[in-house]
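Morning!

As promised:
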Amino acid sequence: MKPQFQHLSITSLALWFDWFLINKGEAFSVKTASLQLQEDDRLDPSYISYASPFKQWVYDSGIENVQVPTSITDVSTGEEITRGEDGMIFDFQNGRVLFPNLPINQNLDLEATFSVKDFNVYLTDQTEEELIIENKYDVNSRFYSAEIPIEPYSEVIPAVFISLEESNNVPYAFGGEDETYLNFRSVVFSENLYQLDGVLSIFRDSKLTGFPELEFHDHPLDEFGDIKDGISEADPNGFEYSYPALAQSRKTGADFYIKDCSVSKLKESVSNNGIDNLFIGFVDFEVTKVRYPRA
Amino acid sequence: MTKNFKTQLTSLLKKETKQKLTKEFEQIKRRMVQEFLNHPVTREISAGSNSPNISGTLSGEGNLFSFIGFESGVDPIAPLVLLLEETKFHYSSSSSHKMSVKYRVTLPSKEQIYRVSPMPWAMGRSWVKGIEHGISGLGFYLRKNSIGRSGGGVQIKSSRVRTGKFKNVSYISKIFKNFERNMDGIKL
């Protein structure tokens, strides 16, 4: 099946959300950490991974002061290994690098400098009660120094989980033009109240703004979690992704419009009975787009 | 003379019209409040933690009062009735030369409705909005008397007790639409 409007809307919101939070809140920190060999049964056996203690590195160069790594350091020789050299690729989602599974790559002493998101962002189809009550998360603290990598693919907090709750078309104008309403809900898990208030404040103020409709293939990461080659229209041969540049190129004048955005916190008394030592909030978006769904 | 007569006649007509419109408005408003009070969702929540799921929103399991998690003894409906009662009729007479009248009705906005209907566990969310757009939580709802915040349900922390899905229904939007249709239908 080719990508439908719903796919595009989710991709568009997720990429905008990620950029908006990091950019407006400067919600990232630059870290230097050693990368440790990590077993990963799900990884293509032709690769091995060296992981950092932090998941979800920032890959958007369009944000000021962000360090998007293009190379890592071989500590034993002091030399830089750039993307592609020795077959090395990045996995931004899992905060690690991948090397070809060769004996020569088994005992490397590596170090990387990268920006890590203050909040990981996940798309989910889980209900709120599943997210809040059932799941047990690893806390990938941004405040305490960690050295041991977290399991790949596992969802860690602080994080925001976004889901499309429901959508419907409402007649808008003659000629088959409808206004499509999309209700997105997100659950915010934070380590402290400061973080939570920050996220809620940022998104509350996004009401009455907009974001462009992106193409499905505009998602910047490939199957390994590295930036796609040539994702930037300005640099078709590079590995550089910039949301502002992409959004600018996709602007049509018929963007998604955030008609309403309400935020709230899970009441402390309830929260204390749910998940230990976490602060939980909700960001609910009502997004609309005027379009011709039957065209 | 003719002018004065016309004015007098118009004035009399307008007075009668105002009285008739005001009366019609009061009847329609009363009907709106009754429609709200008789709505299955309202009745179910008003009945508290022992009510059956007459609204059908929970596939017959449990009830909305407990599912939403209201504290035992609270009346979530009262603030909404008060707000609906604040619906006002404003008559504004036009120029005395014209045989037309203008009136304006101030209905509570959806935002006002949402503000007086906070979720008990997340004050920034509205349970009225949730009724129309969806509320999470059914999977963790266990019908058991005298346990939990509402006295009629308990949330299970670690294991899923019962799966299910909340079925959203048209609620305040439909009531407002009916009100507007009734106002439009006033014949003098």
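Residues 2-184 of chain B form one domain.

Hope this helps with the figure draft.
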